[in-house]
Amino acid sequence: MTIFDENLILETINMIKLHNFDIRTVTLAVSLRDCMSENINQVCDNIKYKLNKFASNLVRYADEIENDYSIPIVNKRIAVTPISLIGEACREKDYIKIAHTLDSMALELGIDFIGGYSALVEKGCTLGDIGLINSIPEALASTQRLCSSVNVGTSKAGINMDAVLKMAEIIKKSAELTSDKDGIGAAKLVVFCNSVPDNPFMAGAYCGVGEPECALNIGVSGPGVVRAAILDLDKKADLGVLSNKIKQTAYKITSTGELIGRKLADKLGIPFGVVDLSLAPTPAVGDSVAQIFQAMGLEQAGTHGTTAALAMLNDAVKKGGIMASSYVGGLSGAFIPVSEDAGMIEAATKGVLTFDKLEAMTCVCSVGLDMIAIPGNTPVTTIAGMIADEMAIGMINKKTTAVRIIPAPDKKAGDKVVFGGLLGEAPVMDIHNFSSENFILRGGRIPAPIHSLNN
CB-hemisphere CA count at 13 Å for 265? Predict the structure, then answer.
């Protein structure tokens, strides 16, 4: 006879009902490498067939698992092979047609987001890469569920500064083409250094070329649960005790993700991929990474000590998660998006959390400059400088870094952008007015650091 621990049952219920614990996303990674053709119409037909084959039951089965275990699954997503590769063989490189095909399939399948409108150009661009990158603004403006990413640097290859400048132009144009929605096109576009091929989180998810035909990756989130666990501790508990409590909590969260992921993968008849344990916040009160810092003892996110608190949080989350699953992957750690975190929004509005402080925090966070609104008249070369700084942090520190910024059309510092849903809202942040132009226009490639020569 099985004996149930009443305290553990109540604890799980409280995690869900009181502290916003959820499975943030189930992301089906699907390889489209066998969809290539010289004929663009054939490519689109192949994509439809492949996605129907593997994803037709994703939403239904995820809903069944959610009901069986009473654990919310917030988003159902698909990630595909970087589309620059899939469209490259076409005689007519109509990437917009592929974008519309992906978006229409997401709608038909009931998918929240589909990622992989992507290119990997850390050492240079092929004709296919150029075609896709040039099409990104129109693709994002004319679709609802499509997400895009471009990798412009790695610790092995260095930083492609020509691609950095190009992506700054693309970001600005993506915002301008969606000016009626506060530049939301740029909110669905991310620029990476050391991008991750099994990341289930948007906008950067894609199915890497080393991935299997199909796999299910899980994104688990629980900043509210971690915050509640910290608040339960004695306020005088030292940082070692605090770190251990975060590890224990991360273990519980990851174990739940592992269970749900494997059950859903079995139901779909596909391999289980990874659990990405990332404390990804939402605009909901209490579901905030910034409020974890406050529970730790900081008066406000962004004040002195925030980077140290984030470093400890990120490390403890990973240590706890890695013990709960054989396959922890993706980005795993703590996200610090401004618009998607109620506490970060508050700190930015008060002026405590600045652009420079956010950049410093990206040295130790899970990804990078995320969902930050900047004035719409910011020069392209200044945006390129922001991207270059963040790529350098990733390259030197052998970590994934990213930039997802929104040059809000017709908005200035102190104004606000509103996207709604998980994307939330954010104050337009003040930035430096001094020029980066002469440095950025040199172009070329920043060489990889000396530690890249480790073979």
Answer: 20
Residues of the chain with pLDDT under 50: 1-6, 9, 18
Give the pLDDT confidence of 140-152 residue by residue, as tens digits: 999 999 999 999 9
Q: Are 361 and 307 in contact (CB under 8 A)?
A: yes
| Domain residue extents for the chain | 21-193
Give the separation between CA 55 and CA 78, rounded to whole angstroms. 8
Q: Which class would CATH give 21-193?
A: alpha beta
Residue 333 and residue 47: Cα distance in Å, rounded? 33
pLDDT recorded at residue 16: 58
Taking the model in full, what pTM does it have? Answer: 0.92
Interatomic CA distance for residues 401 and 438, integer angstroms: 24
CA 149 – CA 195 distance, rounded (Å) = 9
